[in-house]
Amino acid sequence: MQKISVLLVYYLCRHSMVIGSSFDSYNTNITTETYDNLESEDLNRETQPLLNPIYRDLDPSNDVERIDLRQWAGRSTVLLTRNDVPSTTNVIPANRFFNVSVSLQRNTTRYPRFSVPLTIASIDEVFCDFGPLPTLSLCEWQNGSGVLEWMAGSGLGTNWFGGPPSDATTGTMEGGYAFVETSQPPSKSITGKSSGARLHSPQLGSTGVSGTCVMLKFAMDGLSVAGLRLLLHLGFDEYSIRKEPDEAVSFQNVTVPACKPARPDSERVLWNAHYYDLDMWQQAQILYTYPDTHSLIIEGIPVDATDPLRLFRGYIAIDDIDLQPGSACVGFCNFASGFCDWSNDAEDDFDWTISRGSTNPSTGPAMDSSSDRTTAGGYAFIDSRFPRRPGDIARLISTSFPAPNPDSPMCIHFWFHMYGPGIGNLKLYLRHFRDLDSVLQEIWGLSGNAGNAWYMSQITVGSLDDFQLIFEASIGNTGMGDIAIDDITFSHGACPVYPQVAAVIPRDCTFEVDECDWINTRDPDRVEWERVSSQVLSLRNQRKPYTNGITGTRHNEFFLTLGKSRSGSFGGGTAQLVSREMTGSDNPLCITFWYIMFEPFIDSTGPSLGVLRIYIQPNDESPAEPRPIWQLYNDQGPAWNYGQANINEKRNFNIYFEGIWGPNRSNGIIGIDDISFYIGNCSVRPPAASVRSEDCSFDKGICGWENITLSNNDRTVTWQRAFLSHRPAQLLDKTFGATGDYIFFDIFTADQKSTEVRLRSSVIGVSNDDESTCFTFWFAAFGVEESTMLEIIKTTVTEDANGNSDENGNDELLLWSLTAKGFNNPRPVWMAAQVTINGRSPYRLILKGTASNGGFAIDDIKFQPRACPTRPAEAHPRVSNRM
């Protein structure tokens, strides 16, 4: 590293200072004008050439409240360290002086000086992968003023110290990373410090006009995690200087005037990623510019110490920190040094240009979008003056982007300004490389005057192949219709379109304004989805993690909750939220959203909250049955969680969000928010929400299963649905502990002759990935032991050329068989069962029951991928498989 000798100068108060005096005794009415006067005072000519402009703000601008001065042995170097540093959220008022922990004497030279050899790191020296074992380290990064500390760790210490099970660099347990254990008690009990852990970079110089691209990987998990953010610290940062405490010695009577107040904005939030539990490493890229000396701070934040969730384990981890030239952030652009990876279309009517401010007060922005956030620069705009005519179009085309991971689409964020009486249209298009001649796909659009302000915007971008993005702006009816864009950035993960009115197809929805085009269906239960403020939730339920790293002004205040029954009872009732009709396509579509399903307590009967489902309803001349694509039951924890599901539908269709209350004995909550769509063949998240049409909890019927019991005069000799006054041995259902909603057979014959009942599934298709499937269910046995039996039988199905199914009744394979022997028949209880189904051809399952005095109950049938051992073990067939 190159060492630069910098003269550090502290401004002297206009009042004389004496030994032992407190600065609080002096004038405390420092105004902004006074501050600027202090900053602009003429400096002594012999000191001025040595002074870096950034050090005019040296110690006050980094929120130092108390300063210790120590001199390193054998060196004429002064080291600044903090004893007391307030949180960035507890900024010292601008009209207060700082207390200094050393004695003062009258200053006779007005400009006392002492020098510090300040090391300015290159961006290459900031890189850190935290090393593989056994050489784990934080590299040149250092812990700062947080009450928690970052530690270097590896997957081998996951269950000992905390952190993820593998690193991001090598994906092994031996690879290193830095992490914060968020449940640990504060290691430093000093009032006013950051409540989290702060990791400081070495001191950095100017980024240059093209900026610096910060790249890092992060992972977060656990109930005690609140967030992660990247801060820009302006000016000198004592935690960026590597210290060697054994070299420090004390000294006295150093003249250090320190009366200049701190600016309340000495740190800027560049990026944040709130709690995002995907159990995987995420990639982040941040482009920023700053013209002078600064440092970066990575801050991991736990939930508040008073939150009960603070007692639970959690970690925030980072890996592969790298700083590169701004061009490494592909597609990012703040237009300070040109168009970056964007270029003007050669076939449009005119070009986008770059400006620092409008010359016409009636249109265009006065300055770029980030000037009030320190990083001033340019912006791209269309000039609507002569010779432009109404309807002229200018296009700005991005570089090509590779197809994103179907489970991690791109979210583009940008700022726009549309001010003036002649504003035309601003649109964002997606161009797929597989068909460059196809019509551009419009994904975002606004028109008309939006007022003299910059607005943040975002939209999810998904594609099955390489693609480009195109900004298109058009001239309105007058020459006062300048349209501008600025600060284009990208993040991983889906994001609902913002602002809401910019949605080309109104299907994304944040519920900040209204329910968009989603509507409640009329329901006899008189239960509806209700739009409410998050303030109705307890503080721990308000932890909505969705931000996508954006530091804009979106509040994420409103969401939809499943309303309570109009009858006043806690439990019971169904509500459906239906989308407008969507156009079918050969391209797969992914729906993403956030949900909360929380029960404050669960009694001895079991969970009772309810169910959240997503259905697809195809629309054609012969409407098919609704097809479930996502489903979860009961409590899923106190925090908001991320969900997604895949849609493959060539016919036009509607989407249903269905919420069903169980008994809800603890008065819990079911809610949804931030619905978004993108093109991509995504997987179901969380995996437990995977669902097939044959899965059934019997709360709304028998889900396509068919009763094929041979005709019998006794209507009770069949499979039946349980309800309040018709159920065996007062058995509650397994799903909610309610008084019905399962199926059973209960047979009594006077002649003790066994009778058979059968329930058959619909045809179950398989894919190349479904070589083995685990069929799971819950059962309860009752009645005479030996004569009561339940069997699971598989039958093969063939299809003719017209797609008609033909079942081979002679080819029945016994998979599972169990009698009621050994169970507590007078007081039946639910038992878990499962069995593997092998094969790659379509099939049906038959639930065959046999009894003369007794029966079985079945609930919560589910098909899951991969093989599983037979349970109970005694249910293995004991006879030939050929029936």
Question: Could you characterize the architecture of this molecule?
Answer:
The protein is mostly beta strands. 1% of the residues lie in helices and 37% in strands. The chain contains one helix and 46 strands.
Descriptive labels:
883 residues, 5-stranded antiparallel beta sheet, 1 helix, disordered N terminus, MAM domain-containing protein, MAM_domain-containing
Question: Gist?
Answer:
By secondary structure, the chain is mostly beta strands. It has 1 helix and 46 strands.
Mean pLDDT: 79
What is the number of helical segments per DSSP (H or I, 4+ residues)? 1
Estimate the helix proportion, in percent.
under 10%
The total strand number stands at: 46
Poorly predicted regions are: 1-116, 245-262, 879-883
Pairing-aware structural class of the strands and helices?
mainly beta
Shape: globular
